Amino acid sequence: MLLTRQQKNPETIILKHSSLNDISRILIRTTNWIGDAVMTTPALRAVRETFPEADITVVANPLVAQLFESHPDCDGVIVYDRKGVDRGPLGFLRFCRRLRREHFDLAILFQNAIEAALLTFLAGIPKRLGYTHEHRRLLLTHPVGVTPQLKTLHHTDYYLNILSRYGVVASEKAQRLSLRPDEQTWAQKNMPPGPVAAINPGAAYGSAKRWLPQRFAAVADRLVEEYGLSIILTGGPAEIEIGQDIASAMKSPCQNFIGKTNVRQLMALLANSKLMITNDSGPMHMGAAFQTPLVAVFGPTDHTTTSPWSDNSRIVRHDVGCSPCLLRQCPTDHRCMESVTAEDVMLAVESLMGRPA
Ligand code: SF4
Predict the structure, then answer these.
(1) Centre of ligand 1 from the C-alpha of residue 324, in Å
(2) Are both 48 and 139 inside the same structural domain?
(3) What is the number of domains present in the chain?
(4) 299 lines ligand 1 (CB under 6 A)
(5) pLDDT in tens, 81-115
(6) Do 148 and 295 sit in the same domain of this protein?
(7) Are residue 27 and residue 158 in the same domain, yes or no?
(8) Closest Cα to residue 34, out of 310, 302, 295, 280?
(9) Residue 219: domain span
(10) Do residues 73 and 93 lie in contact, with contact meaning Cβ atoms separated by under 8 Å?
């Protein structure tokens, strides 16, 4: 074990495992969901701080890769498109060969699938660190055992925990995303003038996580009337219909960006909003990373492990016996979401923003 640096608390000495000396090229296999990838960013910073001289490359699917463009804690991104050009066994082997040519010294696996461990093993990366999910133990040189307690950790701590076993720690645990100046300019040019609230009514995981469009519309109208905010709708192509339902149910006008932005533009919209109303979703975690004040409606998911990682947020949920079920579609009456009213959400807005003037 090698003494590398101290935390802010002078009594806490951080030890990097000596087997991680002489690392100059690091591959990070990140997660396949945007929200999870945002929650890995404190762990990514821990890697950067522990290996300040190393070149760090993130491997991600085409959507998640956009999060890490121009990110201060990595030096590059390699897109792994396993549903496109890298599809099938031949595509997988071709991608392994591509990684082999990069001569990485260390692979860190935030993704839990056995495929991630196999990929880095076949790519000839000599050190491979990750959880032992899916019988990956034999493929890892630096395994981290899976315990029942892991399920209770917030996902941000879950990813940090992979690294802390080997003395790779961050000086602070804030999530971080970054935008280029031209992306900020794009948002400012395209958003309505004045303070804006982003309504984000989708959730890629499934319909069980979605609050009702009519209630999003009722909240949006009240934000216009009571707080003088302009409204934008945000989301991906799969949520176009939901956006149209909300826009037509609203009395006030709104600007509908759903299905019209890429991930970087969505990030810029959320970073420049004064408030966000959202389901538990990838964009929710983006908003939290930018410290945009936000209210999140939770139903079937576990609000203790995937809550927004921000003091500038409020969660609205009702205790129903079947939650968290973690199902994509509700098999019963969707009471976890049906029971949340527009008034509940407005009370959460008030606790964040104060009473309307
Ligand atoms: S089963 Fe219960 S927690 Fe799950 S989606 Fe339906 S109402 Fe919500």
Answers:
(1) 7
(2) yes
(3) 2
(4) yes
(5) 999 999 999 999 999 999 999 999 999 999 999 99
(6) no
(7) yes
(8) 280
(9) 181-353
(10) no
